[in-house]
Each structure stands twice: as structure tokens, then as C-alpha cells.
């Protein structure tokens, strides 16, 4: 996302430590920025609560709860939280910065994921979730937006904003928080959440990764909630044939409507997946999975007659429930819109969720005997006829079995000969390998290699940057895979940046797919505020003020003018310090000097204490006037007026005398001076002179 020039947070120093660089994302409760930790010299992500929520104690406590919940976890699959605090009226949270995308972005790009990709992400998320469950934390908001995929391949679970301690999981009477598409039945109906609620959301997430869509969809959120409470989540293979059976088992097991039928926490499911089913897991193959209703035996069910009254209480009530929910939803729309996907569920949902439940009575059916009570012995001919029929039925079964085995053998031959079984997946290990090694890998799999080129800012020059088809894609044996070899970053030419406005310089940099780095704000007496003074390339220090060659992805740092330092000459010391303080500068009283032009106690000049560019926070030394320098009245008594006048004026004194003396300056002699000879007076003072002939 590009920076918003009007965003007041850009360039701001938070808590005297975190320098905000650019905006990453904006959510319903907070905005996330990229910042630099000046103390530890590292990049961090800083999450700042929206100003209009700062006075809401509920949001504040949830914000602090996120920091405390995540800080209790130290796991490679959980986003690290470094710091939390408040700067003035602004609450913030400092987290690990992970450049990359979310799982939601990946699903949008690919449509649906391969089983291998799904398994990798599922194991990583389960590992982080298992650590949270072990620490007694229920996440309560597991969804693709909260699964982060870093550029270096790390997978992490973040956003513990809705997390609660497991001992405080009962939420009866409170608003249900979370995304409606991933809420478990018990959260919808009773407002209760524990570790098994996270497991349910993970099951929905698994279904979405494999199929590219959520199992329940609709324009009305309450309709989706109703389906979660009453319907059984379909297995992924019903949507996308060919998905391995283990994923059907996992989805059915994790999304069972009864929490008792699900894994008790993330560790149980993780152990099951990592052991290949060797540990306790869902029922064995062939047995119904947890959460899958058992098939009823018709022989054990008696006919049930439903009266109109009973129908009105069951089926009709169930069909009318969505409409009732939609009407009750009108009262909660405002609360829902304020928090994005967070919904407030209306009361009485327990009754609606159970509306389609039907209870069937059972009555064993008796066999043998007739209705007329005939106790006569069985007919021997009838027994022989019955045995012949049995042998005939057995022959049909054997014939059907042979046909079935032949079909299985033929299908297996087709699958591995010409069907999907004949395909191979493009290896994921080709990226970052040499072209020679990648070609050898493809040859071993029966694939051909062709070399191509592309620019890459992440893969070193000479190594494979990407493949076509992409990694993990299944292709027929004998197909050709193009290995795109990295040519290094794409060369670009940076234009002249010095003299541009800060916004124009940023636009020029990002328009060439380079990155804007630090913004160094400096005072300058000749360049107006907001104008770029200089630009440099991060890392190699190349001067780009007048433009020059660079590469895509390269970071360019800017020095921007703050305008001239305020002029404080002639001001009192207090006024000068106040004026400098408004410019975020500090004024300190320095030496005192005599001045014939600046009154006593006023500032003569201000100079920076340290050399180099002047930045906000720097200190200035103030030179203060002591007034005019004092001089002694020279001894001119007895001298001619011509000599006396020259001596007194050279001493910086003004004269008060009879103008008659100027007529005969060489004949007139000085008699007295007032003030007297040798007295100290300020330079520029007036001395009265008397004469005699």
C-alpha cells in the first residue's frame, strides 16, 4: 500500500524511540506502520489504535490483552510482541516486522492450494496454536487474514486481539467476537469458546485452502451462523474430487458440531498429522468420522406420524428460522459494521439452532410367524426352494465382485498410466539452486529443462529465481519446465531529487519500484521547508541528489529541509528559548559580550553547539549582551582643544562643549572634563569640556 501524504503519523517519533516510516495496513481497530526502533536499530511493525477508540475502555483493554496474550508465547510460529505502551493519548503495540503476505492473499492468488501447500501451512499454524493452548490461551479469531506468510518462508499466527485465557472462556450474555464464517456452533448458540472452538475454525480454514471457498456462504451473516449451528460441514473432496482422504477426515473431525467429538486441542491434531495417523485420531477408515451422523437401520425404526402441530414445531420452524434471524439481525447491524466481521448474536439462538431436530422412536420389527397364529410345521419343498434361491444370490455376488475387481484394476492402470498418477509435481527445491542442479533434478523426474531469465531483487544473480509452471504444479512426464535464472535486481535510473518537494520525491522513487527509506529533517537557511536537500542510496551510500543509476527494491534515504532556524537576535533569553522550543530546538545561555547596539540582557546571536546539519532536538548556545564596553575618561586637562577633542572621540566618548573652541582649536586649552579624568563610563557616554585661552 502506498503512503498517504496527509497521514500525520509518517515521520513521527513515538515515545522517543520508534520513528514511523510508512503505513502497512489499516484495520477496524488500529493502523499498522513500518517503523525503526532507534534504540536497537531494527525495523519493527507498530500497531496504533485509532484515535476515536482511545476513550473506549473496552477497546483499550482488548488492545492491551493482545500484547499480554502474545507476549506469553515464545514460538517460531507466533508473531513476536516486543513492546506496548502509550504516547500521550495514543496506545501502541510494537511487533515483529514480517515482510510478506497473508494466507488470504495466497488463496486469492491461487484460487485453491495444493494438498502439499495445505499440509505445510496447517502444520505451522497448528504448532503456533498448540503453544497458545498449552499456555492456556484461546485465540478465538483463527482465519486466513491472521496467518502471515513471510518472504523468507516462515509461517506465523498473529493478531491475538480477541484472545482470552482458557479459564475465562464463558461469554454468556456478552457480544460474540470473531469472524462469522469461522465461528463454532457453541460460540453461535451459547457464546462459549475453548480450545476446541479454535480447532473448528481451523477445520473451516482447511476446507477453504483446499477448495478456494468457505463451506457456508450468504449475504446475511445470521444465515451463515444458522448453518454453522445446524448443518454438517461437507468434506473437501465433495467439492474438489481427488483430494487425499486424510483431509476429509481432518475436516470432518475438526468441524464436528459437538465439541466433545473434536480434538481437545491443537497438540492432539498436530500429533495425529505428524505421526501419519499412528496416534489417537479420528475413527478408523470405514467407520463414521466424528461429527458424521450414523446411518439409521430402517429395520429398527417404526413409522412416526407427525401431526400438523408437530410439523409447525420442527420442520416449519427450522425453515422459518433464517427469516427470523434476518429480522433480529437489523438491531445488531450497527455493532457489526463498527468491527468489520465481528457480529453480535441475538438472544434465543439456542432454540433456533435446535429447531430442525427430530426425535424418532424405535420399535423392533418381529420376524417369522403369521398374523393368523398358524403353528403348522414348515413345508420341506419350500425349504429346498429357499436354499436354491440363496445359492443363486451367492453367484450374483461373486460375479459382481469379479466385475468390481476388474474395474479397480483397470482404473488403477489408467490412473498411473495416463491419468493424474502419471503426473509429477515441479519440485519446490529448484528455487535458489544453480541451473545445473535444477536441470539434474528435473531430469531425474522425467522432465526436460529450458533456461530463461528474469530480474529478481531477492534471488542472487545466477541462481534459479522462478519456474514455469510454478513450483508444486503437477505436469505430465516429459514436459518442459522453464528455469528462469536471476539477472539480479532490475536496473533503474533515479531522477534528480534535490529541489523536489518531499511528496514529489517519494512518488518518483516508488514509481520506479524503489523504496523510500529514512527521512532526515534538517534546518537550512537557504532552502524552503519541505524541499529535498539531498538523497542517498542505503547500504552503499551513493549520492542520488542529482540522480543516478540504482536498482528496483533499493532503498533511497532523503534529507528534507525544515526551513531556516528562527532568528532570536535582540530577544530576551526567555523569549529566545520559547521561540526555539516551538521549532523543537533547545536554547541555553552562553557567554556574555559587550555590545554597543544590543541592550543589556538581550540575545546578540544563537549558534548550534555541535557541528554539522541542524536537526530537531539540537541545542543552541545564546550569546547575551552586557551592554556597551566601559572606558576611562582620558586626561586631557591642559591640552589644546584640537588634541583633546581627538583623544576623547577616539576613546568612544561624545563631547559637550562651547562651539567657540572650534574657532581657535590650537589656542584654546582644556580646563576641566566632567565626569572627571580616570572615571569609568560606558562607551558612547557624553563628557562636558570647559576651556580657557
UniProtKB/TrEMBL annotation:
Residues 360-387 are annotated as: Disordered. Its EC number is 2.7.11.1. SUPFAM superfamilies: Protein kinase-like (PK-like). Residues 18-273 form the Protein kinase domain. Residues 421-487, 559-626, 627-693 form the PASTA domain. Keywords: ATP-binding, Kinase, Membrane, Nucleotide-binding, Serine/threonine-protein kinase, Transferase, Transmembrane, Transmembrane helix. CDD domains: PASTA_pknB, STKc_PknB_like. It comes from the Bacteria. It catalyses: L-seryl-[protein] + ATP = O-phospho-L-seryl-[protein] + ADP + H(+); L-threonyl-[protein] + ATP = O-phospho-L-threonyl-[protein] + ADP + H(+). It holds the Pfam family Pkinase. InterPro entries: Kinase-like_dom_sf, PASTA_dom, Prot_kinase_dom, Ser/Thr_kinase_AS. Gene3D superfamilies: 3.30.10.20, Phosphorylase Kinase, domain 1, Transferase(Phosphotransferase) domain 1. The chain crosses the membrane at residues 396-417. It is an enzyme of class 2 (transferase). Coiled coil: none annotated. NCBIfam families: PknB_PASTA_kin. This is non-specific serine/threonine protein kinase. It comes from Leifsonia kafniensis.
Amino acid at each position: 500500500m502506498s503512503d498517504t501524504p496527509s497521514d500525520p503519523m509518517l515521520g513521527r517519533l513515538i515515545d522517543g524511540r520508534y520513528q514511523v516510516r510508512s503505513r502497512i495496513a489499516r484495520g477496524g481497530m488500529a493502523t499498522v506502520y513500518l517503523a525503526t526502533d532507534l534504540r536497537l536499530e531494527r525495523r519493527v511493525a507498530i500497531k496504533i489504535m485509532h484515535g476515536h477508540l482511545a476513550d473506549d475502555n473496552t477497546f483499550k483493554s482488548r488492545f492491551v490483552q493482545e500484547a499480554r496474550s502474545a507476549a506469553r508465547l515464545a514460538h517460531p510460529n507466533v508473531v513476536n510482541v516486543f513492546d506496548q505502551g502509550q504516547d500521550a493519548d495514543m496506545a501502541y503495540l510494537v511487533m515483529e516486522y514480517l515482510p510478506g503476505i497473508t494466507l488470504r492473499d495466497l488463496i486469492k492468488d491461487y484460487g485453491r492450494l495444493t494438498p502439499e501447500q495445505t499440509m505445510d501451512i496447517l502444520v505451522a499454524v497448528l504448532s503456533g496454536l498448540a503453544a497458545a493452548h498449552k499456555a492456556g490461551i484461546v485465540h478465538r479469531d483463527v482465519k486466513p487474514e491472521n496467518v502471515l506468510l513471510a518472504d523468507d518462508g516462515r509461517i506465523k499466527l498473529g493478531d491475538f486481539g480477541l484472545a482470552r485465557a482458557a479459564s475465562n472462556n464463558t461469554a454468556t450474555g456478552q457480544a460474540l467476537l470473531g469472524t462469522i464464517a469461522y465461528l463454532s456452533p457453541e460460540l453461535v448458540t451459547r457464546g462459549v469458546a475453548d480450545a476446541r472452538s479454535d480447532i473448528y475454525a481451523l477445520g473451516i480454514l482447511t476446507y477453504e485452502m483446499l477448495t478456494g471457498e468457505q463451506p457456508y456462504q450468504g449475504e446475511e451473516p445470521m444465515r451463515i451462523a444458522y448453518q454453522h449451528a445446524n448443518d454438517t460441514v461437507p468434506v473437501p473432496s465433495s467439492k474438489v474430487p481427488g483430494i487425499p482422504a486424510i483431509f476429509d477426515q481432518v475436516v470432518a473431525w475438526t468441524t464436528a458440531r459437538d465439541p466433545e467429538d473434536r480434538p481437545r486441542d491443537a497438540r492432539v491434531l498436530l500429533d495425529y498429522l505428524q505421526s501419519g495417523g499412528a496416534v489417537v485420531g479420528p475413527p478408523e477408515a470405514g467407520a463414521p468420522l466424528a461429527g458424521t451422523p450414523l446411518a439409521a437401520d430402517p429395520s429398527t425404526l417404526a413409522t412416526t406420524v407427525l401431526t400438523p402441530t408437530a410439523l409447525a414445531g420442527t420442520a416449519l420452524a427450522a425453515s422459518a428460522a433464517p427469516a427470523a434471524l434476518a429480522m433480529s439481525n437489523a438491531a445488531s447491524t450497527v455493532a457489526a459494521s463498527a468491527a468489520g466481521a465481528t457480529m453480535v448474536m441475538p438472544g434465543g439462538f439456542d432454540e433456533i439452532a435446535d429447531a430442525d431436530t427430530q426425535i424418532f422412536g424405535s420399535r423392533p420389527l418381529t420376524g417369522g410367524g403369521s398374523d393368523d397364529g398358524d403353528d403348522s410345521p414348515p413345508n420341506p419343498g419350500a425349504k429346498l426352494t429357499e436354499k436354491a434361491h440363496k445359492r443363486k444370490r451367492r453367484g450374483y455376488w461373486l460375479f459382481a465382485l469379479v466385475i468390481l475387481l476388474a474395474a479397480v484394476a483397470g482404473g488403477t492402470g489408467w490412473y498411473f498410466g495416463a491419468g493424474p498418477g502419471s503426473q509429477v509435481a515441479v519440485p519446490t527445491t529448484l528455487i535458489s539452486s544453480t541451473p545445473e542442479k535444477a536441470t539434474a533434478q528435473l531430469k531425474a523426474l522425467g522432465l526436460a529443462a529450458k533456461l530463461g531469465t528474469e530480474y529478481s531483487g531477492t534471488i542472487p544473480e545466477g541462481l534459479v529465481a522462478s519456474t514455469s509452471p510454478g513450483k508444486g504444479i503437477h505436469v505430465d512426464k516429459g514436459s518442459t519446465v522453464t528455469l528462469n535464472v536471476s539477472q539480479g535486481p532490475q536496473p533503474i535510473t533515479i531522477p534528480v531529487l534535490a529541489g523536489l518537494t518531499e511528496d514529489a520525491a517519494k512518488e518518483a522513487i516508488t514509481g520506479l519500484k524503489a523504496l523510500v527509506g529514512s527521512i532526515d529533517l534538517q534546518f537550512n537557511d537557504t532552502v524552503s521547508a519541505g524541499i529535498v536537500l539531498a538523497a542517498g542510496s542505503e547500504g552503499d551510500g551513493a549520492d542520488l541528489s542529482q540522480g543516478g543509476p540504482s536498482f528496483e527494491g533499493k532503498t533511497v534515504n532523503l534529507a528534507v529541509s525544515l526551513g531556516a532556524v528562527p532568528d532570536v537576535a535582540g530577544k530576551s533569553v526567555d523569549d529566545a528559548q520559547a521561540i526555539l522550543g516551538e521549532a523543537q530546538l533547545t536554547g541555553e545561555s552562553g557567554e556574555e559580550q559587550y555590545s554597543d547596539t544590543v541592550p543589556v540582557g538581550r540575545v546578540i546571536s544563537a549558534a548550534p553547539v555541535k557541528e554539522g546539519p541542524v536537526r530537531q532536538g539540537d541545542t543552541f548556545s545564546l550569546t547575551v549582551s552586557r551592554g556597551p564596553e566601559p572606558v576611562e575618561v582620558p586626561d586631557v586637562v591642559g591640552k589644546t582643544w584640537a588634541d583633546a577633542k581627538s583623544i576623547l572621540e577616539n576613546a568612544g566618548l561624545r563631547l559637550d562643549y562651547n562651539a567657540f573652541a572650534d574657532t581657535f582649536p590650537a589656542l584654546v586649552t582644556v580646563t576641566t572634563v566632567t565626569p572627571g579624568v580616570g572615571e569609568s563610563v560606558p562607551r558612547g557616554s557624553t563628557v562636558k569640556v570647559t576651556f580657557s585661552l
